[in-house]
UniProtKB/TrEMBL annotation:
Domain AAA: 12-195
Role of this protein: May play a role in septum formation.
Similarity section: Belongs to the ParA family.
Stated name of the protein: Chromosome partitioning protein
Compositionally skewed regions (Polar residues) per UniProt: 279-289
Region described as Disordered: spans on this chain: 269-289
Annotated source species: Litorihabitans aurantiacus
Length: 289
């Protein structure tokens, strides 16, 4: 866990998405983020899922009265107003989700610039940190609901990279074609910078032929976007959120924690798709339009 990770030249913004539930999406978002923070990087998790599981795993307050992603999307608060620091690591920040977010999709329908609310809020926050001499955010991970509504559209519009966790089980690729079509629509109409940069195989039992077959199929389909690291099925990973922790802090020497730490290191060693594909949310961070 002491391995050093490469610090990116500028903030990298990932949306973690898969419309299929139960694939380790939130678990991946919080544990990659926690591993990077433990390695010395400054990381922001935006909990954009009404279930609020990312907030829970990071030990973040997210009761009904808590200022949250909902308030940011509706324009009532800035990210600077709502962001919290995880008790596990002062380099790990979180914009929490509350139950109020479940109504945001309906409320956003009648709002101007409804698809770009999160992008503009994130851009403003990154500029705010730069002008306030606060440490630069190295990575942003946006956790999405397992759906393709306005919450997910906002996440795709704010990011430059998509991380897709895929469970090593039968029908692993089911539903991915629709997700990829939606990403293409976002690229065409809202965010040409968006790219699927990272595929992570999760919940793998390497003792089974099925897990090996699924891994082979995914690597054949996605090629170099697929990380070499595979996340094993792990009781410790499953237990950690019930203690308000990631597995990185709950049991850092466990196989699950070590695998997520290695996946995070692998992501950090990879280059972002290209500077001309930077997140729209970071396009003015360094004074460029």
């Amino acid at each position: 866990m002491g391995t050093t990770y490469d610090r990116p030249a500028q903030t990298r913004v990932f949306t973690v998405a898969n419309q299929k539930g139960g694939v380790g999406k939130t678990t991946t978002a919080v544990n990659i983020a926690a591993a990077m923070a433990r390695a010395g990087l400054t990381v922001l998790v935006i909990d954009n899922d009404p279930q609020g599981n990312a907030s829970t795993a990071l030990g973040i307050e997210h009761g009904p009265e808590t200022l949250s992603t909902y308030d940011v999307l509706l324009g009532d608060s800035s990210i600077a107003d709502v962001v919290q620091t995880s008790p596990a690591d002062d380099r790990l920040l979180c914009v929490p989700s509350t139950i109020n977010l479940s109504g945001a999709e309906i409320e956003l329908v009648t709002v101007d610039s409804r698809e770009t609310r999160l992008r503009e809020a994130l851009r403003t926050y990154l500029i705010h940190r730069s002008s306030s001499d606060l440490p630069r955010i190295d990575y942003v991970f946006i956790d999405c609901p397992p759906s393709l509504g306005l919450l997910t559209v906002n996440a795709f519009t704010a990011a430059a990279e998509v991380l897709i966790p895929i469970q090593c089980e039968y029908y692993a690729l089911e539903g991915l074609s629709q997700l990829l079509k939606n990403i293409q629509l976002i690229q065409a109409h809202l965010n040409p910078a968006l790219a699927v940069s990272t595929i992570l195989l999760t919940m793998s039992d390497i003792r089974t032929n099925l897990a090996r077959e699924v891994a082979s199929e995914v690597r054949e389909h996605f090629g170099d976007e697929t990380l070499r690291t595979v996340i094993p099925r792990s009781v410790r990973i499953s237990e950690a959120p019930s203690y308000g922790q990631t597995v990185i802090s709950y049991d850092p020497s466990s196989s699950g924690a070590l695998a997520y730490a290695e996946a995070a290191r692998e992501i950090s060693r990879r280059q972002a798709p290209a500077l001309d594909r930077q997140s729209p949310a970071t396009s003015t961070e360094n004074g460029t339009a």
